[in-house]
Each structure stands twice: as structure tokens, then as C-alpha cells.
Write a structure and sequence with these properties.
Elements lengths: L1 E9 L4 H15 L5 E8 L6 E8 L2 H7 L3 H11 L3 E10 L7
Antiparallel strand pairs: 1-3, 1-4, 2-3
Helix pairs in contact: 1-3
Length: 99
């Protein structure tokens, strides 16, 4: 399983548009084959930070995700916004257990 975790720091004037793009992206992505989780979250300490969390069945499922029309729409929309920084990391998870 793959886990994607990331942070987008967004200028205040771009936040509303970024949230709208993120909501549509998450909704469409959760419908994809191989997607186990896909959500954006607002940081409780900084309202201009959006966090992303994804779980994918495989590299193939993630690669297919990057080719979807909604990914292209999301990327185009985000490129028009003032994103201060973006840090996204992919983790390969061999085992998971409840805490």
C-alpha cells in the first residue's frame, strides 16, 4: 500500500479557490480504482495550510490517478493560485496495525 501525505501553504487570497479545487479533486479521486482514501484537511493552527492524505493500493493505481482528467483540472487550477509552498511525500507501507 502507498500513503501520500502533504502540505500546501496557500496565500490567504487563494484559499477559497484552493479549497474548492481540493473538494472536487478529493471527491473524484475517491471514485478511482485502487484508491482507499483521499482527503484534504485544514490545519487547525494555520488556516492557510491544507494537508492531503491519500492511500493507494499500488504504484499502478497511483500512476493511473496522475493521468485522470480531474488531476489535470486540479493542476491547472492550482497553477493559477498563489501557492507559497508544497511538500508531498509518498510512503511505501509494508504493514499497518491499529494503535
Amino acid at each position: 500500500m502507498l500513503v501520500i501525505s502533504g502540505i500546501f501553504r496557500i496565500a490567504p487570497e487563494s484559499r477559497a479557490n484552493a479549497v474548492a479545487l481540493a473538494q472536487e479533486m478529493a471527491r473524484a479521486s475517491r471514485e478511482e480504482e485502487g484508491c482507499h482514501a483521499y482527503s484534504f484537511y485544514a490545519d487547525i493552527e494555520d488556516q492557510n495550510v491544507l494537508r492531503i492524505f491519500e492511500q493507494w493500493e499500488s504504484d499502478e493505481a497511483l500512476a493511473a490517478h496522475f493521468q485522470t482528467p480531474h488531476m489535470k483540472t486540479f493542476q491547472a487550477g492550482m497553477s493559477g493560485l498563489k501557492i507559497l509552498s508544497r511538500e508531498v511525500t509518498k510512503y511505501e507501507v509494508a504493514r499497518a496495525a491499529a494503535l
